[in-house]
Amino acid sequence: MTRRLLNPDQKRGLIGSAMLAVLILVIVGAYALWGESYQARILYATFVNLIVVVGLQVFMGNGNYATFSHAAFMGIAAYAAAICVTPAAVKALSLPDAPWGLNAFEMHPLSAALVALVITGVIGALTGLFMSRLTNVSITIVSIAILVIVHSIFLHRTDIFKGNQALFGIPRVFGLGHITALVILAIVAARLFRESRLGLRLRAVADDEVGARAMGVNVVRARMIAWVVSTLFFATAGIAYAFYLGTISARPFYFNYVFLTVAMLILGGLRSVTGAVFGTLLISLGLEIIRWLETGPTLGGVKLPEMLGLSGLLLGIVIVGVMAFRPHGLMGNREIEDIVFRRKKTTEVSK
Amino acid sequence: MDYAAQQLLNALSFGAEYALIAVGLAIVFSIMGLVNFAHGEVIAFGGYSMAVVGTVVTGNPLVLMAAVLIACVSVSLLLERVAFRTVRKADITTGLLTAFGVSIILQNLYLLLGSPRPISATQFIFLDRTLLIGPVHVSSLQIYETVTTIAAILFLTLFLKRSYLGIAMRAASRDFQMVRLCGIRANRVVATAFAISGLLAGLACIFIMARRGSVTPHMGFDPVLTAFIACVLGGFGSLPGAVLGGFILGFLEVGVLVLLPQTAGGLAQAAVFLVVALLLFWRPDGILTPATEKGDKL
Q: What pLDDT is attached to residue B278?
C-alpha cells in the first residue's frame, strides 16, 4: 500500500496554517504602514508569547493536561543562548566569577541558538521521562516542581545567572523580521504536529486513555515526544526573547508569565492551534488597553484613578468566564479553515 | 539532643500547618474533583477581614478569631456558589484552571482594594511566646499549632464517621450519583465540604497571622502550593493521605534545612520539590491513593 505524503487532515492543516500566517503578515504589514516605533516592542513581545502559547498547545492542548513549567524552559534556553553569544570581553564584566570557563568564549548567534536548543531539548527529555509516566494532577504538580527548581537555581547560582539582577550585553541580533518568520514556522509546525499520527494519538488519549491504550496507542511514548517538542517551542521563544532584549533576568521566567500564557491558551481553546493564536492576540490587545487604563488616563475630561492589579483581574476573569461559559475556549475543537470552509464529510467536530 | 528535639518540634508544627491546609484541599477534591487553587486566597481573605475588624470594631483576640473563621467559611461558600458550581461536572483540568482563575481574580482584588504592601494586624502575636521546657526552647505557637491540628483532624474524623452528613460525604467521594439517588441533596454535600474547607483555612489563617503579623495579597500562595503538593504526595482526595503528605513535607522541609550547608540555603525549596518529584515517580498517584482502576467512572 502506498502512503500518500499528506492525508486530507494534514492538507487542511497546511491550508489553515497558511491562513494564520497571512493573518500574522497582515498584522506586521499594518505595523509597517501605520505603527509607531514603540509598538515594535509590544508586537515583538506578543510574537514571543505566541510561540510559547502555540508550544503549550502541543502538549497541554493536545493532551489536555495543565502544565506550568514552560517559563522554566524558556529561561533555560534564554540563559544558555545569552551565555554562549555574549562576547568574552563583556562577560568578563558581567560574569566575572563564572565557573567552567563560561566567561572565556563566545559563539556565533546561530550556533549559540543551536546549543541552547540542544540543552533545553536534553533537559526536556530528562524531565519527559517523569512527565510521560505520570497521571493528571501529578503532571501539574511535577511541572510546578520543575518551575520552582529551575527558578531557585537561577536565583541561587548568581555567578552564572546573576539571579534577579540583569545579565546584560547580549548582542541584539533579532528584529521583527526574524520573529515573524519564527512565529509562522511555529504555527505551521504545531499545526502539522496536531494533525500527525502522534498528535492524533495524543488527542485520543485525552478523550479516553483506556480506549486509546486498547487501540494500541503507546501513551507514554506519545506524551514523551509531545513534551520534548513543546519544550523546543519554549526554547525558541526564550532564545528570541534574549536576542531581542539584550538583557535578561530570572524574574520574568516565573509564575506571572505562566499565568499570562495559560490564560491566552485557555481563552482561545486548548484543542486548536487557531485558538492559541487568537487567544494570544486578543489578550495582548486587551492588556495593552488595560495597561493604559491602569496608569490613570484622562477619558472624556474625567481623570481616572490609578488602578494597579487591573490587568491581573482581567486575566482571572477571562479564565473563569471562559471555563464557565465556553469550557472549550473560543474555538473549541475547530481550526480556522473549519470556519471558512465547511467540512465535506460531516465528522463530529465539537462536543 | 536539645537541637534534635527543637527541630522535631519545628517539623511537627510545619507539618501540622500543611496538613491543616491540605485536608481542606482534599475534602473538596474527594467530593467534586476540584483542585482548589483559590484556597490560599481564602486564607488571605481571613487575614484581610482580621485587619478590617481589628481596626474598625474591636481588637479582642477571641472576637477576631471568630471573625476570621466566619469570614473564611463564608467566602469559601460564596466561591462555591459563584464560581465552582458551574464547573461541577467538568473534568479535572477545567476545574483546576477555573480555580486558578478565581485565585488570580482574588489576588488582584486584594491588590486593587487593599494595597500591594503588607497591612499589619498584630493582635495574634501574643500566641507566639518562647517557653523553656527543660533545656529546650519551644515556641508556644508551635505547640498550639500541632495540638489544634490534631484536634481538628480528630473532630473531622468523628464528623465523617458518625454524623449523617459526614457519612453522606464519604459516600459521595466514592459515588456521587448514588448518593443523590439515595435522596441526599448534592448542593448540601458540596456546600458542607466547602464550609469545612473554609473552616480549616480559617484555622490556618490564625496561625499564619500569629507568625507574620501582617497580611499581603499573596500570603496564601506559598503555603497552599506546599499543601497542594502534600495532597498529591499523599494521594489526591484521600484525607489520611493529605495529613500524611503534610507531615512528610514538614519533615522534608526541616530536614533539608538542617542537612543542606548554609551556602545552599536558597536551594532548600528546590531540594524539597526534587524529592517530591522522585516520590511521585515512584507512585504517580500518591502514596495512599484509593486503588481505582482507570476508566472506572464511566
A: 80
C-alpha distances out from residue A125 to A62, A74, A254, Å: 18, 15, 21
Q: Where are the domains of chain B?
A: 2-219
Does residue B218 belong to the interface with chain A, where contact is any CB pair within 8 Å? no
Strands A302-303, B136-139: parallel, antiparallel or unpaired by DSSP?
unpaired
CATH architecture designation of domain A8-254:
Orthogonal Bundle (1.10)
The 10s digit of each residue's pLDDT in B229-244 is 888 888 777 788 888 8
Q: What is the ipTM of this complex?
A: 0.72
Residue numbers of B between 245 and 274 with CB closer than 8 Å to A: 264, 266-267, 269-270, 273-274
* C-alpha R_g of chain A: 21
Single-letter code of the amino acid located at B236: F
- CA proximity to B14, closest of B182, B184, B230: B230
CB atoms within 10 A of CB A67: 21
List of residues 6+ apart from A177 with CB closer than 8 A: none
CB pair distance less than 8 Å for B270 and A66: no
pLDDT tens string B25-57: 888 888 887 888 888 899 999 888 888 888 887
Q: Do A141 and B228 touch (CB under 8 A)?
A: yes
The closest CB to that of A134, out of B269, B270, B284, belongs to B284
Binned at pLDDT 50, 70 and 90, residue A308 comes out as: low
